[in-house]
Design a protein that fits this description.
heterodimer, A: 213 residues, mainly alpha, elongated, B: 99 residues, Helix Hairpins, 3 helices
Chain lengths: 213, 99
Amino acid sequence: MSAILFFIAAIGAIAGAIGVVMVRDAFFSVLALVGHLISLAVLFLLLRAEFVAAVQVVVYAGAVMVLYVFVVAYVGGESDSLGARLPVPFRVRSPGGANLRLGGALLGGALLVELFIALLGTGLEAINGYGAPYAPGPRTYGTPAYIGQLLLTRFLLAFEVASFLLLIAAVGAVVLARRRGGLEEEERRLHPIDLVRPQGTGTMAEGVGGRRS
Amino acid sequence: MSIAWYLAVSAIVFTLGAVGVMTRRNPLVVLLCLELMLNGANLALVAFSRMWGNGDGQILALVVMTVAACEVCIGLGMLVAIYRRNLPIDVDELRELQG
């Protein structure tokens, strides 16, 4: 039973990955990635990592993919380059598309062979087994209670650093994506003092003797 | 299934992601392929965690997910900024930093 489920999920994951790489429309790439992530969550469940599987579905396939769909809808997500609109002298000649694709595929094949040698050709006997013994229970390996206990005791530093990293990323995204050039309009906020003081007083202009009106 | 099968799947997914990063030109799809590579690494981490029977690999997988979320956040922010400035959305043409 678990073998059948493994093969279904593995084929789903690999097909989703191929879809992400091959499909031309970016929107369908995102949908293929959602399928890939859900198949991967099934694989995590088969590996007894319940909490990681739940996080994968909720955070990844839910939240992050919604963000992707929004940006694809906003940017347009055309797979052929938008730079085709540029006038000819500004257009960069793309370095041989077909050659690049072939080279990428060759390098990918070499990487696959290397990874197989590194992962499966190790002297580790245990990778041919089914893993450590597993007994179901409320606080056993992989449950939320177990993960939470590890996160708040042994891996507290990693937990805090990750939360700080999320804060930095959120601030950075706001700074990167905000609308520029509108600062002059936004900076002229109405202040209560502006209503009672005469025009031009209390400013730097008055300090240097200009603009008395 | 033995752990080796999961490692094989993770190697294939990682390779597909790497090929996508090398060949695709839309930065949005390049980000998606980076996600694929991180997911391949995650699968290997969880498989090794199962092999040893302790949760360290799963914690590391969760941290990798956090880093992936940050990367998506910054990458999509940059993409929106590029789009607002009417620059071409194509990694072959955005190469002022190439030196």
